[in-house]
Amino acid sequence: xxxxxxxxxxxxxxxxxxxYLKSWETLLVAVAVFVFVINALxxxxxxxxxxxxxxxxxxxxxxxxAMAMALLIISGEIDLSVAAIIALASTAMGVxxxxxxxxxxLVLVGLxxxxxxxxxxxxxxxxxxxxxxxxxxxxxxxxxxIAYIILGDQAFTGYPPSFAWFGQGYVxxxxxxxxxxxxxxxxxxxxxxxxxxxxxTVYAIGNNPTGALFSGVRVGRTKFILFLMTGxxxxxxxxxxxxxxxxxxxxxxxxxxxxxxxxxxxxGVSILGGSGGIPGVVLAxxxxxxxxxxxxxxxxxxxxxxxxxxxxxxTVIGAPMLWQRLRERSA
Amino acid sequence: xxxVRKLLVTAAATxxxxxxxxxxxxxxxxxxxxxxxxxxxxxxxxANEGAQEAAEELGNVEIIYTGPTDTTAEGQIEVIxxxxxxxxxxxxxxxxxxxxxxxxxxxxxxxxxxxxxxDSGVAPEGREMNLNPSSxxxxxxxxxxxxxxxxxxxxxxxxxxxxxxxxxxxNNWIAEMKKxxxxxxxxxxxxxxxxxxxxxxxxxEAQGLIQSYPDLKAIIAPTSVGIVAAAQAVTDAGxxxxxxxxxxxxxxxxxxxxESGAxxxxxxxxxxDLGYAATMIAxxxxxxxxxxxxxxxxxxxxxxxxTLDENREGAMAEPFVYDASNIDKFKDIF
Lengths: 331, 334
Fold this sequence. Notes:
- The complex is a heterodimer of chains A (331) and B (334).
- In chain A, 76% of the residues lie in helices and 3% in strands.
- Chain A is an all-alpha fold and 331 residues long.
- Chain A has one domain.
- In chain A, the strands form two sheets. In chain A, strands 1-4 form a two-stranded antiparallel sheet.
- In chain A, strand 2 and strand 3 form a beta hairpin.
- The relative contact order of chain A is 0.18.
- The longest helix of chain B is centred in the first third of the chain and has 23 residues.
- Chain B has two domains: 169 residues, Rossmann fold (3-Layer(aba) Sandwich); 133 residues, Rossmann fold (3-Layer(aba) Sandwich), CATH 3.40.50.
- Chain B starts with a helix and ends with a helix.
- The chains are: A mainly alpha (331), B alpha/beta (334).
- Chains A and B meet through helix 2, helix 3, helix 8, helix 12 and helix 14 of A and helix 1 and helix 3 of B.
- Chain A: It is found in: Cell membrane.
- Chain A: InterPro entries: ABC_transp_permease (IPR001851).
- Chain A: Part of the ABC transporter complex LsrABCD involved in autoinducer 2 (AI-2) import. Probably responsible for the translocation of the substrate across the membrane.
């Protein structure tokens, strides 16, 4: 390395961001490999195709939502009602089932309810200008509350076998339908965020909404679309989860919103908006799935997993800020 | 990236080697997983104690006591998936959801794992058999028996304080109580009142009973809310020793009233016996010493024998009686 290359580094803003992102994702790959090796060494049951396939069900549904949530958080908003949307969409599918709906109608109902809930959130945030964190805490109670009113302590069961395939079916050998669907969704969102002008718009809004507005970006409309997407993904997750459980209860997917946000933040998306990417979130989802499964194989109580994720989150959010402060001091 | 790839390859290779080594040593032990609604609940810790007791008695049994952090079906499914992966011999589960666990448990059975439910059952297609802590009949009988035991010579008036008139469980138990009344001529059932499982309403209903029936000798409350409220009302009315409160309650909530004498005895299932019995059944089914089919009789060791009905369900035993002699031990458990 000579002097010229050393001094040529910090002249472009974008270059710094991409290099930072690259290093973050490399770190995630290293963590994933590390977890994989530890699991493989500590349990004789880990490296089994069927077992690994079972383990993917621990994260696929949450990770689908995390894809849309990543874009939403990059744009500076958040949706905490995703798990409640699952509950409402699943309940609506159960009601449709009582009226004799077949598999295509059930899927349609799930998608529609997801979209409607997303539209409602989007309208409250962009139409009325309310802060998304407050709005979605409210709709979180609202959506789940409706599910509780409809179901009480009852459950909807008796979904048709062709519907169960969405949550229990395999496309080829150990490759489940859910895993394939997740991969497809991740690909779509990866392209959308990183290779389209819509994706650049999302970053622009997250970094500086006013600046974006004066550059001709339709900030409100973009955010509305992002809420729609998050709602739609929650609807898809509701279809998969309902099919996997074969039943609907109002407590379905309880507490998932936090796990989804955890995946997104762990994946390197700044909670303040403006930065992050899809590959990181995908890696974070896989890491969380592997760690949960590994702890499960070792029969480690679930609370240890919670502690682990909590520490990881604090480190992930805290380390870059600490790093920057140190650099400012030394500069 | 090449370093990463190299790492991956090495990892896979080492892991493959370890697997071969680990699977080589034969498994003599029968591994039974006791899956509970959530970890950190006294009731289930006590069930685990019973399971350990059964394991010690059987000798070649390893108990895996596990469960999710909070009482969700999704969490339990993750736990059960990892148990399937470990290829345990049996899973005995107290389910957070009757229906949601069925697909996962079916998968477990497909892979040759014995699956039973206990305490909180799973729908019939998701398990080989279900162990209920007790039965309506046994609960009804026990309530009347406890009331009769502490009546004065020559019998006396007894009233029932129930939850609400629409609660299926309580109504079934009261119907069973009425069935056995002819066997207890000293018990003179005067009325049934409803406190709706609300502490204040139950308390007022109990007060009403004390005033309306001056010769009342016992109150049977087959609800954990009602029994505490009734005991409090008897204490506040200064009738301790005169009116005995009994029924179904939780040791932790009733300890004070047993000490004061407002309640001579009450009943509820014993979690230690429940964990013990579930383990015994799981062992017998997993080792093919018994088959879960309608009419089958399966041994539960010291607890006795369970007989399965047409839904492959059975009742463990009559409810366990708690009184001054054992309340101190159980009040810290649940």
